[in-house]
Structure to design on (115 residues):
């Protein structure tokens, strides 16, 4: 069975299937913030979605990070490093990409396991 959350016409925010949680790309609510503020908002959204599915960031299997400017990499990493639980850093890719809305500096896609 596939369980979908916050289903819209174009996408669902999250799907759960066979013990795996798939999140849509998470973006900041406030595009006016700097990279650290935007990263903090995105990671908080990830925390909230994972909690709704019954899991948490210590169960992340893979993260994909999209930055509009690779100069933001150190600032993003500062927030990321403080957020990731010690000993549970997931496999991760970070790439530069144009994002769908002006002002967005970061988008993060996460796949996690249910405990």
């Amino acid at each position: 069975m596939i369980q979908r959350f916050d289903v819209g016409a174009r996408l669902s925010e999250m799907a759960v299937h066979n013990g795996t949680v798939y999140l849509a790309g998470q973006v900041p609510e406030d595009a006016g913030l700097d990279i650290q503020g935007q990263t903090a908002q995105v990671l908080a959204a990830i925390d909230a979605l994972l909690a709704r599915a019954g899991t948490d960031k210590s169960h992340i299997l893979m993260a994909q990070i999209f930055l509009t400017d690779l100069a933001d990499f150190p600032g993003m990493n500062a927030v990321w490093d403080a957020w990731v639980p010690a000993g549970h850093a997931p496999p991760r890719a970070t790439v530069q990409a144009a994002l769908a809305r002006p002002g967005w500096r970061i988008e993060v896609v996460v796949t996690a396991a249910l405990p």
Residues 2-113 form a domain with the 60s Ribosomal Protein L30; Chain: A; fold (CATH 3.30.1330.40). The chain has two helices and six strands. The chain has a mean pLDDT of 98.
